[in-house]
Structures are given as structure tokens and as C-alpha cells.
Amino acid sequence: MTEDEEIYYLTEESPFFDLVLQKSHVNPPWQLNLPANWLPMLPNEVVPVVLKHGGKSWTVHYIPIRPRFDSKWKNFVVDNELKIGDACVFEFIDRSPKNPTFKVHILRDEWPPELKALVDTRGETSKSPIIVD
């Protein structure tokens, strides 16, 4: 069984954030902004960040101004064939201030019909978020 086939459960010990990928995440300008509430957990300087998925690792840089990953995020997107509508869960597995690490869980665009309708009509901007009850 490969790492992608194994089932992992998030725990309270590892904080995480998730997002449904939009056009700007998977096409130029290849931007991935981190949630503002993550600022206290990340360093206040540019540092390399390791993203792990499927037994492989990618290094991007965390940029604290408008908290985001740099353009090396594109390598992760391309290598994992991510597309609009896929979701990523970023599990914070190593909180080292000099080299933080996230395990990235990828959920392909295989949403239940009721959620797919929300993704298609909402979540395109921060003014129309997807709300799951």
C-alpha cells in the first residue's frame, strides 16, 4: 500500500487548514495565500517550507508579507496534477521555525452533488465562501 492509499486521520496535535483550489492557485500567478489566523504559528521572516505528499517533498518559501507561499508552489501543483475544484488539507506536522513542514492531503474533485453545487456557485471569491454545515 502506498502512502497515497493509506488512510490518515487528522489529530488535535497537528493544526491544519484546508482550501478548495481556485483558478489563481493552479494557473498563473500560482498564488497560495495562507489564512491570516496562521500568522502566529509561522515565523515572521521568509523561510523554506516543506510540503509532503505521496512519499515526495517539495520546498517552497513562506513569505510573511500577505502570508503566502512563493511561486515554487507551481511545482507542487504541476507534479500533483492539481486542478480547480480539488481540495488540499495542509497538516502542520513540524513547527520548526527555520523549516516548517506540512503534510498535504489532496482530495480530488469528487464532491458529493450537494457540495459540488456549492463549489460551482460559491467560493469563487472571499465574498462568496463555501459554508458546510
How would you characterize the overall build of this protein?
With 133 residues, the chain is of the alpha+beta class. It is built from 3 helices and 7 strands. Strands 1-6-7-3-4-5-2 form a 7-stranded mixed β-sheet. Strand 6 (87-94) and strand 7 (101-107) form a beta hairpin. It is globular, with a radius of gyration of 15 Å. InterPro entries: B3_DNA-bd, DNA-bd_pseudobarrel_sf, REM16-like. This is TF-B3 domain-containing protein. GO terms for molecular function: DNA binding. Keywords: DNA-binding, Nucleus, Transcription, Transcription regulation. Residues 17-110 form the TF-B3 domain.
Question: Which terms would index this structure?
Answer:
single chain; 133 residues; alpha+beta; seven-stranded mixed beta sheet; 3 helices; 7 strands; globular; transcription; transcription regulation; DNA-binding
Fraction in helix = 10-25%
**What is the H/E order?**
EHEEEEHEEH
Work out the radius of gyration.
15 Å
Largest sheet: 7 strands, mixed
User: What oligomeric assembly is this protein in?
Assistant: single chain
GO molecular function, one term: DNA binding
Subcellular location: Nucleus
Main location: nucleus
Keywords: DNA-binding, Nucleus, Transcription, Transcription regulation
